[in-house]
Design goal:
Blueprint: H1 2-21, E1 25-41, E2 72-88, E3 92-102, H2 111-114, E4 132-142, E5 150-161, E6 167-180, E7 183-193, E8 203-214, E9 217-228, E10 246-261, E11 264-279, E12 287-302, E13 305-314, H3 335-339, E14 346-347, E15 394-406, E16 409-420, E17 443-457, E18 460-471, E19 477-479, E20 484-486, E21 492-501
Parallel strand pairs: 12-14
Antiparallel strand pairs: 1-2, 1-21, 2-3, 3-4, 4-5, 5-6, 6-7, 7-8, 8-9, 9-10, 10-11, 11-12, 12-13, 13-15, 15-16, 16-17, 17-18, 18-21, 19-20
Amino acid sequence: MKKYFIFSLLILAFAATAYGQAPKLDFRASGDIAVGTYLYRWNYSNQVTSRAGFFDVVPAVIKPGGADWNKTVSYVEERGRLKFDALMGKELSGTMYFEMDSQTWGDDPSGGAGQRSGRNVIGLWSADRSGIEIKNLYMDVAVPYIPVPITLRAGIQPFGVRAPFLMYNDGAGFTIGAKIDPVNIIAMWAKLNEGEVSTSDDVDFYGLHINAKIDSFTIGGYGLWFALHQWPAGTAVNAGTAFNSIQGDLYWLGLYADGRLGPVNINFDFAYDFGKLDHNRQEVSNVKYNGMGTRLKVDFPWEAFNFGFVGGYGTGADTNKTDRFGIPGQPVGDPNIAAAGVTSSKVKAFIVTPGSEAGIQDSEVLFASYIGNGFTGPNYVGDSRVSKGSIGGIWYAKLYGSYKVTPEYKLTLQGLYIGDTTKNGDTFGTSLNAAGSLSNNSSVGWELDLINEWQVYKNLNFKFGGGVLWAGDALKFYDSRDGSNDKPKTPWMFATKLTYSF
């Protein structure tokens, strides 16, 4: 009896210990609310959706004769994000992440895919829009019974590889991460399109990303593969067909390094893309892709100052060999070559992944604005086709310096030169020579920016400033009304962004 009593006490003690160690639900909420204002001339806004292409990416509305040519634009935008995390210890968590957008306060009632209640139009007068978007919905699980730490993420999640240089997308898929010190291994799979579940008309993404911390540097590499059984990716398959007419495979290989070398901080990226697209319903040649892009950033912090350099280069397309979107069977970009019946065959421009929302924020006018968190600039892109991203078709060099006037206030002055790498044409401009072919100019222009950052409170940040771009000949546009090549009036922008993070 005594033994039974002692055994029972041991069981109760063990049970109480086990129960006490059971993980409890930890429910967390975070997010932000941001309001931005913009005033500029000759620039993209978040109202312009035609941002893709390897050259001639400026829409007709802001070319000579267009309704907005040399006009000044002003608007206010707003974005809210709300993230919920439900954690059960270190082994299990779930995330729900919502987003709400107003493209412009007083949004166009026909916005949101023609619906008065839709995404991106919550700023419509009287509000009450059904504009809550599901950005992410996923779970993280620590895989049990395996000696190596492995984590599985399943659901609608962010797929980012060296953003903002190359790839950022939210999508449905799996990510598996394994850590074998000092090496991290990440395998990814995502479904861009399913189409008909009984036919091979889908689009899949596969990725492998490996990095390791070596001394003060993180060095990594990756390989990405988009298996495309329809094109563009991210759109509905042609109704009534087993396969979409355009298919192909596109690949990216990349290397990077981040770390400190002596007194300077270094960020380096290099990526090479290759592959091809086929048209399986017409007797047309396929289009082969191969291009490269690179970016180097060097920072030298010194007391309250920081001095730096950024350089970037992306190969450009050849307008004699590709159309604007690199699609099989389409006439090439140069009008004289196209008139001879030549169709797209090669894309030499550096490209980012389909639908990537990555945008380098290295200037205020040409690039995706740092003040605006990446929502302006003709080099901000996001399209279901591939596109040149931020640096395809250009090269640039930037010098900058910042000074922390107070612990809460920082001032940055930066200047950069932008060149054009597109062949037999210009990346942005559409000027023609005397023979009627596209001109080939080398200078996009010089830009000077001033950026102010004020940490008003711990959770409230205010950025304001802007820039001026002195246009080069590669920003000349052909005016069909009189046959002239015209530069826009000096492009400039002033922006503000007030962000409350919680």
